Each structure stands twice: as structure tokens, then as C-alpha cells.
């Protein structure tokens, strides 16, 4: 595959966009906005994948990440006191270390990319990525496919057990049903004395 | 090329939509503060509307992520379905079984009822 | 090359957005009772649009400014992108992507994000409730849409819309996969939050996500919503009604007729039903419609193997 | 000034009207809904004309001022039987009902064509709290949650309010008195927890509701039962209309409303009932059974259809000899919840039409004058008084949409003991449907 | 667009993600860092597939598996946050480490 000039330009723009939005994620006050910046970064990377002719992966990335980041934004709203960043805030710790580690990681990885020799074996011309992926999934890598299915089922069950209150694994938090409504009334959360038992269910 | 076309359509329409909003708004007076207060039928709010919001359907959203990932495996499968015949059918059986178990379990646990 | 690959899809999409939105406004009024009340049916949408263009655009006290300005335009852009995917004839295709079916799915997912942003950015109580409520619906119909679209991809052995149409030469999917189109219509109502699934801009929230909108942005939002309805109709006509296929008339004409049929069906449904309660809407999607879409997929698979 | 083609075209658009309902105006909203060239909207942002109808008492005028300032320019306000704000130099007053729809539409046209300037803003252009240049970054905020960023404090709970296992914040605001989903005049302080109503306190009582003049006449002298029952059916149909609008079914709402115009003893609402059932109003749209239940003490105090929806056959008509002669027996539902109250309307409309038919045949008049069952409730020596505090007991725990639909099913305002004066009187009764 | 530039881009994304994952106090923001790192990993996988894998489908497979890992990480991560939050009303990583003691 020999990319044309247009592809090079497109890649440059998308790469800059991906890095910029990726960086904005961590310096935006509004948490919701941060999740959608991350979505933009993912979309840029997805577009680069399409440029690399991995069309299905790129488009799947749009689809998957739109949903994931939507959920991410919802959880931001659920957990953050200041989800819209009306007051600027910086909730970071060990920032120096983190910056240094981040830069080191970047430098080392880029050095590897620049210095090492990779075999130059581009895609065959008549390659159809989606079909080959499908054949692979139903052929040699059947096991991966099956495993993924089972793991995802486990995830579903795990998610339900962990996040749903009426879990069958006991009344993990009986007290929370139904949510209390009187302001300042009896808290509906987990009473503290049952805490040990409660966490036991989840770990 | 297809990507370029898509991007053009997307950006051009985005620009059009933005222009449609921006052009007529140029000469207009800036809304005053009372005008900008959220509409509550004459009532007034104490605070900003953005707050920590209890999204009661959150278990459903987590379930959806797992589900959707599973769907991502299905698209390539659909392409070779007819070609692979019986094996693909078996695959589909397993896939749907997994999903059904997931749904039935989640339903039983009341995930789709908002809490 | 630039002309037919860049400009043409773009113009086609815009033409459909403009004409389609106008048509939606007219048809919806015709379907409503007492439609002749407000003067000419044909002039009224234009007059209302002109009125909105002269109106002052409000803002709120501390909106999320970029999202506040971009959300209506983004929704419009998504609709136009969807329209660009539609094949008009074997040769006249806006964007002939090998994965156009998946891309349509991601447009649906992105639409949820945009509609959420529309309500979120206002920083207003009623708009926020509308936004959160819509996300519950938007995330629920997504799976159904994926299932029925995978169903139409099976016989075509491709995710390309042109090949999906080509696979319907002998029999349209609306016949061979009878559950597909009705399920997909529900998705359409959800995607455009129309009629019974209008959870975003609902009347109990005095207009939901659009409660604080006035003037040109409100016009763009309405335009985008109508355009999305048109885009959805065109995709549904392509996936289930054989797209450009048909005797006597040229392909694009057939597609127009079929899209119109889907559009009318959607608008009619929108007028026939009350707005569903959000919670039951989610349960309905997951517990009733999703299993139905499983059946649709099994059926589609069986038919595809049998026909092959 | 030359008028652009755009504005000339805009003048053809229907006038988008935000209606602020004052006291003692009768079914004006319903009349306007059937008028040509007018479109009623739910938020001032979507309107070009603010129509203030009926008396707005002093305590309510600040709220009205707030709504007035929320309309986007160009806009104008039309005042019907209400004293305009003094700050408006050129208020439009229309005090006859016949001229109202025309006048409102004309106002919109004049605005568009530039013949009339947009109304001035009444409130000073000041943020609710000073913020510019204050606080940490000059945006008014302090620390993480403090201060008044952009003019308002941030929503947060001072006390640690843990519910559902999560820390949940409540959002408190006042809704009304000019919100179309609330009874006119009602303002409530609402605390929302997510989309659940956590607390509902009435801060302004709704204006007394008026019934058609014939019910007042029935307290003076016997009146024809047929007419009385048709009035009752019309009243319930109008309630149903408002409810259906909240339920997001405008097409059927309009159909319901158009029934009021041509109501006769031969009218039939089976088709309407069938559409409601087939569309899935009860299955999919209204709150589930068991939501919005009132207990016996509450319904007894409330009176009217709500009592009978709870299975108590309390109806003054059964004490009336002539009604008994017609074979009247109260129709009841058992559940006493929101859905039952919606069904009760339909039942009572059907019963009223049937009674009207019977009574017309026998040409019967009412026998009692000191005990009249109005659509709002029984009117003897006592009469239905304001029950809006009841909402604080019914609505908490409901989701927002459910709360709105429950609200639509309840008649909590007091009964106005005086019949309407001109011009409103003519809006009620059978002349309403002329449009 | 060469393999090297693609890998540098991937490295940049991983670097930013690592910074985020290490520095953010809030659990949800920490997850954003992880997601961004996985974003870089996926890009690198696709780049290898396109430039030096002779079109072997394993490259694509790897990407899709990473995507699945991401989804699982997110779903389970959030579920855990909810569960922990219920127990402790804590959504900060520091509070979480206290919980272990």
C-alpha cells in the first residue's frame, strides 16, 4: 500500500486532532466535555484506521466509542459534584511524576518505533479486510471468538451483580430500596455495620 | 476517497447549520440576564441546573456496553455467514444463547426497571 | 472526478435535507386533524421558518457554549451524512462504503450523544431531564437496530448498502424478513424522537431539550430532526424495500417513492400513539422488541441459507 | 423602512402564543386552541406573543414579569381583562373575546412587518448574583463548589444525603404559576432527585376554577338535566384535552376538544375511547397501576370524579329524585390511582351523554337546588375548596412525567362560587365550539 | 503516513493516557486515561497489520480484542465504582486505597 499525498495530509490533520483532543481530556474543567473530547480522539483514530483500509474497525470504533463515552459522561454526572466544571478544578495527585512518566513512555515508545526495523509487508492489493476478519473469526480464531462471547457474558453477569441492588446474592443493600425520599431522612445507603459483609459479596 | 467525501458532507453541513444560526443572529440584541434564566413557568431556580444527577438506568447502560461489544463480533460474522453455512449457524446459536441468558438474567434482576 | 465524487453526494444530501424537511412539515400537518386551520399547508412551514429566522436567539445563564452552538448543526450534519450513504441506483451512490451499514449504526449512536448534548448544554432544569431521559431510549434502541441491519446483511454477504439492495432482486427483505421493517420503524421513531418516542422534546417538559431554544438554532434543530427522519426513511427503504429496484421507472424515482412510503408510515405512527413512559419504553425495547429482533435474525439466517 | 421578504413571509406564520392564565377566565386555552392563525406554545422561548388573560393578583405579578422578559425579541404582550404593567408604554388591550384571536394574530403580523416595536424588558439586566471579576478566576466561583459562578450558586447538598447507596444531590426550584402543565396560578417548590420528585410544596395556591354558568343557575332554580349533563361532559372533555396534551398526543387531544363544540345528547365517544385504548394510553403512557393513589380521607375531601375513581359512590345526583327517575347510579372505578382517574373521565362523559339523552326525551329538570354535583365536586352548603396541598402528598416518589400526568388527572383548585362575568361567560357554554 | 509516524502517534496517545491514569484522582477520570492508552494500542495494532503483517487477519483480531477489553474494563470498572461507592461513598483513588487497609 502506497499512500497518496491526500492520505498523508489527512493523516497529519487527524493525528494532530487525536493528540490535541486526547490532551484536552485532562485539562478541561467540565467532566462531560472531557468525555466527549475523548470521543473525538477516538473518532480521529477511527478515521485513521479507515485510511489504513481497516474500514470495519474504524467504523466499529465510532459506534463502540460513541456509546462508551456517552456512558462515561453519564457516570461523570452521577459521581462528580461539579460535572459541568462551573468552578474550575484540578483533581490531580503526583502530577509531576505523572508528567515525567508520560513523557518517558512517549520517548521510549517513539524511539522503539523510529529505531527498530519492522518487516515491510503491506496488505495485498485485493485484500478485503472485513471478509478476512470474518473468516478468521469463524476459522482459526474460533476460540478467541467463543472466549470473547463467554467473557462478555461473564461481564454482563458481573455488571448486574455489582451494580444492581436487587442482586440475588443476598440483599446486598436492602436498606437502599426504595430510595429514601424525605430530605434528611433515613439514609438509604448501606448501613455501616454491614459493610464487611457487603464488600464480601463483590470481591 | 470515500472518507474524504464523508468528511466533506459532514463538515459542509456542520458549517451550513452553524451559518444558519450565526448569520441571522449577528444584529440581534444580546439576551438580558432575566431573559437567560431557565424557564420554569415564572418560577425561579435557586441554583444552576447542572448537578449530580441520579441516573436511575445506569445498570442498563453497563449491560449495553458488553452487549454492543458482542455485536461488534457479529458484523464480520454476517459477511461470511452464507459461505460458512452450518458452522455459522452454530455460531449464531451460541451467540444468541449468550445474549438471551444475559438478557433474561438482567431482566430477572430488574435491570430494566429503573430503580 | 471531484465533481461526481465530492460535490454530487454533497449536493444530493443537501437537496434531500431541504426538500425532505419541507415535505415532513407539510405531511405532518396533513396527517394532523384540523390542518387547514392555519392557512395554506404549503406556505406554513416556510412562513414558520422565516419567523424563526427573524427571532432573537436566546441563550442561558451559563450554557456549555460550544455544545450549545454546535448541537443542532451536528445533528443536521449526522442526518446529511446518513443521506450521503444512500444508494440511488447501482451507479449513483453518494458514498459507497464497504461498511455503510455499520456506519449508519454509528450515526445512530452519535445521534444519541448529540441529542444529549443539546439538552445538557442549556444548563436548564427541564432540558436536562429531557437529555437524560433520551439517553435511556437512545441506548436501548441501538441493539435492535444492529440486529435487524445484520439481518439484511446476511443474504447480501456484505455490509455495503448497494449489495444489500442487489440481494433483494428476487425478493425484498420486507417480505423475506417480515419482522425487520416494523422493528426498524421503532428505531426510526426513537432516532428522531418522534411521536410515541418523543422522550427528548416532550410536552410534559414544555419542550424538553429545546425548551430554552428560540430563533435560528431552533429552526436548525427542527430542520435536523426532519432531515434525520428523511435519512432514516431512505435507509429503511434501501434495506427493506429494495431501494432503487423496480420496473418502468428509473432507480432514483423508485427510491424516492419508497422512502416517501416509509416516511408517511412513520409520521402516521407518530400521530397515532401517545408518548410512552420512559421507563416502560426501556423495558419494552429490551424485553419485547430485542427478543423479537433475535427471532428476526434467526429467521433471516435460515432464509439466507435456504435461498443460497 | 423597507420590509424584507423574509419578514413579510414570517407575517404569514401562525402567531405563537404563550398564554399566562389569570383568575376567572374560563376555558380560554381551549377556545384559542381551536382558533385559526394561533398556535399555543408551552414555553415563552417559542412564542412571539405573550397573552395575559384574566386577573393577575399582586403576588403573582413578579412571576409574570419574569415570564414576560423571557420571550425572545421581537415580541409583544396582549392583555385581556388584566391591568398591563406600567412600564409598558404601548400595551395592547383586548377586552372582548370575539376580537381576541384576531387581535393576537394581528399583533404577530404587526411585529413581523415592523409596524410595532418589540416590547421592552421589564427587569434590569443584572445577574441574580454579582459574579463578574469575583472569586478565584473572576467567574464568581470559589473553590470547588462555592461562590456564585456566572451568577448562581451551584447545586449541592449541604447535608450528606445518601440514598440508593449513592450520594445523591437534590435540585430545588420553583415551578409555575404560568406553566401550562400546572393548574393556573399554582406555584410549587419542587425538589428533584434525578428525575424523581422528592418534595413538592405549594407556594402559591391555584386560582379558583370556574364551571359553566348552568351549574350556578342550578343552585338558584331547577335547570334542564340534559343541558346540565352536556355541560358536565364538556368540562371533562376539556380536562381530557389538557391531559392528552401532557401525554404527548396532540392529534387525539384536538379531536377530543373538537367534540366539545358539537356535543349533543346523541353524541358518542366510543370512537374516542377506542382510539385511546388502541393507542395504548393506559398500557404504555399513563403511570402504572398503583401510582398516584389517593387514600379514602384524601378523596373524600377532594370530591368529584376523584372520589368515584376510588370506588366510593358519592354523587349528589343520586339524591336528586329526577336523576333517580332516569335510573342514575354513580359510576365508579376501584383503584383510585392516576390511571383510574383518567378512565373515570371517560366513564362520566359517557354517563352524562346517556343521562342527557334520557332527560331530553322526558324533558326533565333537576329536582334539587341546594345540592348540585359540579364537575369539580359536590356543592351544597359546603363547596370544593382548595386542595393543592394534597399534591405534596401524592407527587413525591413519582417520576417527572408521571407526576405531570397525575397532576393532569387531579382537580385541586377551589370552586369559584360566582359565575363568570363578561366577556368570559360567552366563552363557556355551547358557543365555544363555534370555531 | 508511514508505520513510524503511526507508531509515534500511538506512543503520544499512550503517553497522554499514562499521564492521565497516574495523575487523576477521580476514578472515572482515571478510566479515561486507561481508555486513551488502549486507543494508542489499537492504533499500533492496526498500523502493524496494515504495514507489516501481509494482511494477516490476526492484526485486526487483536484490535477487536483490545476493543473488547476496553468495553469489559469499562463495564466492570463502573460496576465496581458503584459497588464501592455504595459501601464507602468514595470515588477517589486515594480513598479506595484506604479501603484496602
From TrEMBL, chain A:
Keywords, ordered alphabetically: Cell membrane, Membrane, NAD, Oxidoreductase, Quinone, Transmembrane, Transmembrane helix
Region (Disordered) residue spans: 172-203
Transmembrane spans: 6-27, 34-52, 58-77, 97-116, 142-162
EC number(s) stated in the UniProt entry for this protein: 7.1.1.-
Localization, UniProt: Cell membrane
Keyword Repeat: no
GO molecular function: oxidoreductase activity
Quaternary organization: Composed of 13 different subunits. Subunits NuoA, H, J, K, L, M, N constitute the membrane sector of the complex.
Family: Belongs to the complex I subunit 6 family.
Function of the protein: NDH-1 shuttles electrons from NADH, via FMN and iron-sulfur (Fe-S) centers, to quinones in the respiratory chain. Couples the redox reaction to proton translocation (for every two electrons transferred, four hydrogen ions are translocated across the cytoplasmic membrane), and thus conserves the redox energy in a proton gradient.
Name of the protein: NADH-quinone oxidoreductase subunit J
TrEMBL record, chain B:
Cited InterPro entries: NADH_UbQ/plastoQ_OxRdtase_su3, NDAH_ubi_oxred_su3_sf
Catalytic activity: a quinone + NADH + 5 H(+)(in) = a quinol + NAD(+) + 4 H(+)(out)
Transmembrane segments: 57-82, 89-107
Subcellular location: Cell membrane; Membrane
Membrane topology, as annotated: Multi-pass membrane protein
Functional description taken from the UniProt entry: NDH-1 shuttles electrons from NADH, via FMN and iron-sulfur (Fe-S) centers, to quinones in the respiratory chain.
Similarity comment: Belongs to the complex I subunit 3 family.
Stated name of the protein: NADH-quinone oxidoreductase subunit
Protein's organism: Billgrantia antri
UniProtKB/TrEMBL annotation, chain C:
Coiled coil: none
Residue intervals passing through the bilayer: 6-27, 70-89, 101-120, 132-154, 179-199, 219-245, 251-269, 281-307
Pfam families: NADHdh (PF00146)
Keywords linked to the UniProt accession: Membrane, NAD, Transmembrane, Transmembrane helix
Compartments, record wording: Cell membrane; Membrane
Membrane topology, from the record: Multi-pass membrane protein
Keyword Transferase among record annotations: no
PANTHER family with a match to the protein in the record: NADH DEHYDROGENASE SUBUNIT 1 (PTHR11432), NADH-UBIQUINONE OXIDOREDUCTASE CHAIN 1 (PTHR11432:SF3)
Protein name (Swiss-Prot/TrEMBL): NADH-quinone oxidoreductase subunit H
Classification of source organism: Bacteria, Pseudomonadati, Pseudomonadota, Gammaproteobacteria, Oceanospirillales
TrEMBL record, chain E:
Keyword Transport in annotation: yes
Entry's transmembrane regions: 6-22, 34-52, 64-85
Compartments where found: Cell membrane; Membrane
Keywords attached to this entry: Cell membrane, Membrane, NAD, Oxidoreductase, Quinone, Translocase, Transmembrane, Transmembrane helix, Transport, Ubiquinone
EC number assigned by the record: 7.1.1.-
Protein topology in the membrane: Multi-pass membrane protein
UniProt cross-references to InterPro entries, sorted A to Z: NADH_UbQ_OxRdtase_chain4L/K, NUOK/Mnh_C1-like
Origin: domain of life: Bacteria
Sample GO molecular function, one term: oxidoreductase activity
Catalytic activity: a quinone + NADH + 5 H(+)(in) = a quinol + NAD(+) + 4 H(+)(out)
Subunit record text: NDH-1 is composed of 14 different subunits. Subunits NuoA, H, J, K, L, M, N constitute the membrane sector of the complex.
NCBIfam families reported in the protein's UniProt record: PRK05715.1-2 (NF004320)
Family stated for the protein in its record: Belongs to the complex I subunit 4L family.
Function recorded in the entry: NDH-1 shuttles electrons from NADH, via FMN and iron-sulfur (Fe-S) centers, to quinones in the respiratory chain. The immediate electron acceptor for the enzyme in this species is believed to be ubiquinone. Couples the redox reaction to proton translocation (for every two electrons transferred, four hydrogen ions are translocated across the cytoplasmic membrane), and thus conserves the redox energy in a proton gradient.
Protein name, per record: NADH-quinone oxidoreductase subunit K
Native source species: Billgrantia antri
Lineage: Bacteria, Pseudomonadati, Pseudomonadota, Gammaproteobacteria, Oceanospirillales
Gene: nuoK
Amino acid at each position: 500500500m502506497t499512500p497518496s499525498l491526500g492520505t498523508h495530509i489527512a493523516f497529519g490533520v487527524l493525528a494532530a486532532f487525536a493528540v490535541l483532543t486526547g490532551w484536552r481530556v485532562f485539562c478541561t474543567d467540565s467532566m462531560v466535555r472531557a468525555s466527549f473530547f475523548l470521543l473525538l480522539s477516538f473518532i480521529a483514530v477511527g478515521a485513521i484506521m479507515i485510511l489504513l483500509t481497516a474500514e470495519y474497525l474504524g467504523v466499529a470504533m465510532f459506534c463502540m466509542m460513541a456509546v462508551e463515552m456517552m456512558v462515561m459522561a453519564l457516570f461523570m454526572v452521577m459521581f462528580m459534584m461539579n460535572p459541568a466544571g462551573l468552578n474550575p478544578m484540578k483533581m490531580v495527585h503526583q502530577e509531576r511524576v505523572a508528567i515525567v512518566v508520560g513523557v518517558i513512555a512517549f520517548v521510549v515508545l517513539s524511539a522503539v518505533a523510529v529505531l527498530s526495523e519492522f518487516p515491510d509487508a503491506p496488505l495485498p492489493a485485493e485484500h478485503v479486510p472485513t471478509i478476512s476478519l470474518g473468516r478468521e473469526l469463524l476459522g482459526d480464531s474460533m476460540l478467541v471468538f467463543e472466549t470473547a462471547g463467554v467473557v462478555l457474558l461473564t461481564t454482563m453477569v458481573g455488571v448486574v451483580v455489582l451494580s444492581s441492588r436487587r442482586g440475588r446474592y443476598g440483599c446486598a443493600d436492602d436498606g437502599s430500596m426504595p430510595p429514601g425520599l424525605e430530605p434528611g431522612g433515613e439514609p438509604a445507603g448501606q448501613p455501616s455495620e454491614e459493610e464487611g459483609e457487603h464488600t464480601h459479596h463483590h470481591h | 476517497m470515500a472518507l474524504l467525501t464523508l468528511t466533506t458532507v459532514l463538515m459542509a453541513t456542520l458549517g451550513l447549520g452553524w451559518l444558519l444560526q450565526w448569520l441571522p443572529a449577528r444584529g440581534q440584541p444580546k439576551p438580558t440576564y432575566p431573559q437567560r434564566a431557565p424557564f420554569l413557568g415564572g418560577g425561579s431556580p435557586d441554583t444552576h441546573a447542572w448537578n449530580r444527577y441520579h441516573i436511575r438506568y445506569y445498570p442498563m447502560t453497563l449491560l449495553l456496553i458488553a452487549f454492543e461489544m458482542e455485536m461488534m463480533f457479529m458484523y464480520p460474522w454476517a459477511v461470511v455467514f452464507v459461505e460458512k453455512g452450518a458452522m455459522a449457524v452454530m455460531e449464531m446459536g451460541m451467540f444468541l444463547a449468550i445474549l438471551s441468558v444475559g438478557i433474561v438474567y438482567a431482566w430477572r434482576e430488574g435491570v430494566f426497571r429503573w430503580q | 472526478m471531484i465533481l461526481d465524487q465530492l460535490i454530487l453526494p454533497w449536493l444530493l444530501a443537501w437537496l434531500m435535507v431541504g426538500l425532505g424537511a419541507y415535505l415532513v412539515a407539510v405531511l405532518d400537518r396533513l396527517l394532523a386533524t384540523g390542518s387547514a386551520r392555519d392557512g395554506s399547508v404549503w406556505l406554513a412551514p416556510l412562513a414558520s421558518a422565516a419567523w424563526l429566522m427573524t427571532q432573537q436567539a436566546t441563550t442561558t445563564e451559563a450554557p456549555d457554549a460550544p455544545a450549545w452552538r454546535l448541537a443542532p448543526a451536528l445533528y443536521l450534519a449526522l442526518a446529511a451524512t446518513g443521506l450521503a450513504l444512500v444508494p440511488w441506483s447501482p451507479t449513483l451512490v453518494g458514498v459507497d462504503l464497504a461498511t455503510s451499514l455499520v456506519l449508519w449504526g454509528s450515526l445512530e449512536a452519535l445521534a444519541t450523544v448529540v441529542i444529549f448534548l443539546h439538552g445538557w448544554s442549556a444548563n436548564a432544569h427541564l432540558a436536562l431531564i429531557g437529555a437524560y431521559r433520551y439517553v435511556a431510549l437512545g441506548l436501548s434502541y441501538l441493539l435492535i437496530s444492529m440486529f435487524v441491519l445484520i439481518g439484511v446483511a446476511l443474504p447480501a454477504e456484505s455490509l455495503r448498502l448497494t449489495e444489500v439492495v442487489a440481494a433483494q432482486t428476487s425478493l425484498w427483505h420486507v417480505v423475506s424478513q417480515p419482522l425487520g421493517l416494523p422493528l426498524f420503524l421503532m428505531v426510526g421513531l426513537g432516532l428522531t424522537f418522534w411521536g410515541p418516542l418523543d422522550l427528548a422534546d416532550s410536552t410534559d417538559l414544555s419542550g424538553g431539550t429545546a425548551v430554552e431554544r428560540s430563533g435560528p438554532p431552533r429552526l436548525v434543530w427542527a430542520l435536523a430532526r426532519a432531515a434525520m427522519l428523511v435519512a432514516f426513511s431512505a435507509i429503511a427503504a434501501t434495506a427493506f424495500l429494495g431501494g432503487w429496484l423496480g420496473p418502468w421507472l428509473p432507480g432514483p424515482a423508485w427510491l424516492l417513492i419508497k422512502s416517501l412510503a416509509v416516511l408517511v408510515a412513520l409520521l402516521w405512527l407518530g400521530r397515532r400513539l401517545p408518548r410512552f413512559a420512559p421507563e416502560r419504553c426501556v423495558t419494552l425495547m429490551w424485553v419485547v422488541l430485542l427478543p423479537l429482533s433475535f427471532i428476526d435474525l434467526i429467521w433471516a439466517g435460515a432464509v439466507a441459507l435456504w435461498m443460497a | 423602512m423597507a420590509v424584507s421578504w423574509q419578514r413579510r413571509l414570517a407575517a404569514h406564520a401562525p402567531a405563537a402564543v404563550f398564554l399566562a392564565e389569570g383568575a376567572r377566565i374560563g376555558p380560554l386555552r381551549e377556545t384559542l386552541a381551536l382558533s385559526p392563525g394561533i398556535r399555543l406554545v408551552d414555553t415563552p422561548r417559542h412564542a412571539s406573543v405573550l397573552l395575559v388573560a384574566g386577573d393577575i393578583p399582586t403576588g403573582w405579578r413578579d412571576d409574570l414579569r419574569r415570564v414576560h422578559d423571557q420571550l425572545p425579541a421581537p415580541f409583544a404582550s396582549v392583555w385581556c381583562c388584566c391591568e398591563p404593567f406600567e412600564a409598558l408604554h404601548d400595551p395592547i388591550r383586548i377586552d372582548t373575546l370575539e376580537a381576541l384571536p384576531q387581535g393576537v394574530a394581528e399583533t404577530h403580523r404587526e411585529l413581523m412587518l415592523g409596524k410595532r416595536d418589540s416590547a421592552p424588558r421589564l427587569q434590569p439586566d443584572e445577574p441574580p448574583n454579582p459574579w463578574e471579576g469575583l472569586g478565584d478566576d473572576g467567574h464568581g466561583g470559589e473553590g470547588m463548589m462555592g461562590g456564585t459562578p456566572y451568577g448562581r450558586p451551584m447545586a449541592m447538598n449541604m447535608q450528606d444525603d445518601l440514598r440508593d447507596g449513592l450520594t445523591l444531590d437534590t435540585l430545588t426550584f420553583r415551578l409555575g404559576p404560568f406553566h401550562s402543565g400546572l393548574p393556573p396560578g399554582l406555584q410549587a417548590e419542587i425538589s428533584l432527585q434525578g428525575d424523581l420528585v422528592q418534595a413538592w410544596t405549594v407556594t402559591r395556591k391555584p386560582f379558583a376554577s370556574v364551571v359553566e354558568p348552568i351549574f350556578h343557575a342550578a343552585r338558584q332554580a331547577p335547570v334542564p338535566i340534559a343541558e346540565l349533563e352536556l355541560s358536565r361532559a364538556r368540562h371533562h372533555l376539556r380536562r381530557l384535552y389538557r391531559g392528552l396534551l401532557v401525554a404527548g398526543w396532540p392529534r387525539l387531544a384536538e379531536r377530543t376538544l373538537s367534540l366539545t363544540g358539537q356535543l349533543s345528547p346523541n353524541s358518542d365517544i366510543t370512537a374516542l375511547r377506542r382510539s385511546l385504548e388502541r393507542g395504548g394510553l393506559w398500557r404504555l403512557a399513563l403511570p402504572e397501576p398503583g401510582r398516584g393513589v389517593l387514600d379514602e380521607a384524601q378523596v373524600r375531601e377532594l370530591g368529584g370524579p376523584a372520589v368515584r375513581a376510588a370506588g366510593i359512590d358519592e354523587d349528589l345526583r343520586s339524591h336528586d329524585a329526577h336523576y333517580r327517575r332516569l335510573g342514575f347510579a354513580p359510576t365508579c372505578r376501584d383503584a383510585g390511582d392516576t390511571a383510574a382517574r383518567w378512565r373515570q373521565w371517560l366513564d362520566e362523559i359517557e354517563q352524562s351523554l346517556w343521562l342527557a339523552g334520557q332527560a331530553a326525551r322526558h324533558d326533565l329538570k333537576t329536582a334539587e337546588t341546594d345540592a348540585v354535583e359540579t364537575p369539580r365536586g359536590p356543592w351544597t352548603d359546603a363547596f370544593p375548596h382548595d386542595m393543592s396541598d394534597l399534591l405534596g402528598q401524592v407527587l413525591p416518589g413519582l417520576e417527572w412525567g408521571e407526576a405531570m400526568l397525575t397532576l393532569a388527572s387531579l382537580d385541586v383548585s377551589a370552586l369559584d362560587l360566582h359565575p363568570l362575568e363578561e366577556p368570559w361567560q360567552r366563552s363557556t357554554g355551547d358557543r365555544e365550539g363555534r370555531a | 503516513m508511514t508505520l513510524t509516524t503511526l507508531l509515534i502517534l500511538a506512543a503520544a496517545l499512550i503517553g497522554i493516557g499514562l499521564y492521565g491514569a497516574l495523575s487523576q484522582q477521580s476514578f472515572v477520570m482515571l478510566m479515561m486515561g486507561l481508555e486513551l492508552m488502549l486507543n494508542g494500542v489499537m492504533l499500533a495494532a492496526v498500523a502493524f497489520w496494515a504495514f507489516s503483517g501481509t494482511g494477516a487477519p490476526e492484526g485486526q483480531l487483536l484490535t477487536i480484542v483490545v476493543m473488547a477489553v476496553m468495553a469489559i474494563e469499562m463495564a466492570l470498572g463502573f460496576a465496581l465504582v458503584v459497588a464501592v461507592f455504595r459501601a464507602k461513598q468514595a470515588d477517589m483513588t486515594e480513598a479506595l486505597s484506604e479501603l484496602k487497609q
